[in-house]
């Protein structure tokens, strides 16, 4: 398994953040910012980072404490993007991916920043984040949204509203629903495998 590392990264302008990252063994295909759920950088997030690196992506997760507000998420993402560029990743090969609350954060980044690709797996509104449909209506980056219909996920009708809003943004978008899957996709292993492949395919298609 690809190893993950953690470092304190500071810019010349004083901005700093703690990053957990993993590097591909061979050629770097691009760089991905990984936005985690509210429980900080867990073992599950480290596994995700390592798995993305194994597929050729330089993947890094900024530490964002608690249920972060929009400004915190964007600031952390901007510093992480700068770190990826410092590592030699071209700006047109940068993307973002998030799971659970990080899925909402990834959607928000895809609306407020122009990136090569973005993927949200699950997503919840949260107290500090705007309504998902409002965010989706102003997407500026190619965005894939993957949702399960079970548990605390947005209801099927809400996901369809999200699909409609994203389509009106003018960006390339796709929204996929998995009935019976929860936000972690651990209730349906088949759906989890397919969602992972969809994620990789989205980045393959848009970051090249």
From TrEMBL:
<dbReference type="InterPro" id="IPR051049">
    <property type="entry name" value="Dienelactone_hydrolase-like"/>
</dbReference>
<dbReference type="Pfam" id="PF01738">
    <property type="entry name" value="DLH"/>
</dbReference>
<protein>
    <submittedName>
        <fullName>Dienelactone hydrolase family protein</fullName>
    </submittedName>
</protein>
<feature type="domain" description="Dienelactone hydrolase">
    <location>
        <begin position="70"/>
        <end position="206"/>
    </location>
</feature>
<dbReference type="InterPro" id="IPR029058">
    <property type="entry name" value="AB_hydrolase_fold"/>
</dbReference>
<keyword id="KW-0378">Hydrolase</keyword>
<dbReference type="InterPro" id="IPR002925">
    <property type="entry name" value="Dienelactn_hydro"/>
</dbReference>
<dbReference type="GO" id="GO:0016787">
    <property type="term" value="F:hydrolase activity"/>
</dbReference>
